[in-house]
Structures are given as structure tokens and as C-alpha cells.
Amino acid sequence: MPELPEVESVLQCLSSSSPALIGRQVQKVLVLRDSVVDGDLDTLVTALTGSICSTIFRHGKYLFFGFLSSHGTQSRWMALHLRMTGRLFLVPEHKSRERHTRFTLILDQGLALRFDDPRAFGRVWLVDDPSEVTVSLGPDALLVTRDCFLDRLAGLKRQLKPLLLDQSFVAGIGNIYTDEILFRARLHPLRISDSLTSEETTLLYESMHTVLEQAVTAKGANIDGVFEAGSFHVQVYGRGGKPCCLCGTEIMKERFGQRGTHFCPVCQPCV
DNA sequence: CACTCTACCTGTGCGC
DNA sequence: TGCGCACAGGTAGAGT
Q: Which of A6, A68, A93, A143 minimizes the number of CB atoms within 10 Å of its CB?
């Protein structure tokens, strides 16, 4: 599932590819499944056709593509969320369609930006300004400073797992990295945020930062070979019943808040 | 405010 | 072999 590190990897791939996405003009918009577009489909197709991609950035798990109209400076933005199984590729135009391709921008120079998504949860939509989306998000989990993190934590009384998953607290962390962060911080997923000592709070921030930095460097997670994209090795996610890499105890898998949660009952004691 | 549940999707892997 | 079904999970929105 693409979380912050995987989305960052997509961004860096699109930004560094040559020939680049930036500067490409959209010749045609192919919508192969209508539900991929949130909002009015015709409006999006009309706005993007003929426009030129001028910038790309990421906030949490969201990607934003800036477009300039070919005749003026009016800018529109395409927001995109990969959800669980979405993938983005900049490909030669003749490879612009696969079995699960939902949406494609046919570009100049024989290129295409292709959005594949087997489970079809991912979405693209048009916004006048990215802030329409980011206003409801917390700061990016990779960029948030320790002081800002501690400020946002203060006064909250919430279970750590749902808190880290809450995109309005910090943006970018999903189910996999939540489990990895809490394992590294040696904190039980159901610990209440206001019960943490200041040392534990700092450890939580440092763990979040370290795990995300390492995963970005590794270009995403590698989960028992399921994900080919990255090489970040998970220590608890998907390892229920297997030995903890620190103490050898069996990793537990339980459902907390409708989500599979993996943790070591010894390294992450319930308090 | 904090939490729970449901809907949205479809490929995978299990039991029978 | 093949069928049915639980499961995976990010987000929105409604409910407790």
C-alpha cells in the first residue's frame, strides 16, 4: 500500500525521469473507469487537455500536479491519491494501457502518464488550489519538526495507533509504517498519548522520523517480496506468529479499530 | 472529542 | 477443479 515513502518514491521518479514530465503538454485525457475521477469528469478532461505540466509536489500521500493553460498563465491542479493499490508510470505512449489502467494522460514527445489501480480505490480530481485538500491535513510526517509534533500532541488523549493513522494529525503514515514506528519506539499500539513520558514522546517522534527517512532512502517497503519497488525491511508488519527480531517472542497480530496490527508483546508492553 | 462502523473495490488464498 | 468467502486497507461520513 503506498504510504508516504512510496509516494515520495513515485514523485522522485517522475521528477528525475528523462525526458521529464515537467514541461509536457497534455494531448489527450483517457478515463478508462469513470469512478477514478472525483467531481465532474468533463470539467477535468476539458481543463487538462492542451495544458502543460509545470510542477509536481507531495503532501502526505497526496500528489499535486500543476498545469498551465497553453495560452495563458491560468493554473489548475490535478490532485491524486493512490489509496491501496494505485501505481503511476511515465511510459512511452504505446504502453499507455494495461489491464488495470484507470486513467492516462497522453503527452507530447511520445509519452504518457499512466495510472494503474487493480482495486480501483485511487482517485484523481481537479482543484483550483492544493490548499483545498491540504487544509484538512496535518503537516507532512517527513517534514514536521519535533517542536511542531510535540505541540500537536499536547492536550490529546488518544490511542497511538489511530492517532498516527489520522491524516489530520500528521499526514502520510498508513497501516504498515504505523506498526513499524510503534515497534521501533517500543510503544504498545493502544497506549494513550497523554500517558507517555517526555522521553517516550521524544522517542515516538524520533522513531517516526527515522523509519520514514530510511524507507524513503530505500524507495519504499519490501514485505516478504510482495512489493518489488522498495527495499525497506519491515520488522513487524505482516510477521504475525514469527519471532521478534529483538527478543525472539512471537509477534502478535490483532485487530485494533478494524485494522490488522502487528506488535511484540514483550518489546511493546501494554501499560 | 474519541472512537466505531460501513461503504467503496477486487485479487488472493483459504477451506470444502 | 471450482466454488464461496474472508481478508487486505485509506478515506469519508454517519453513528455511539
A: A143
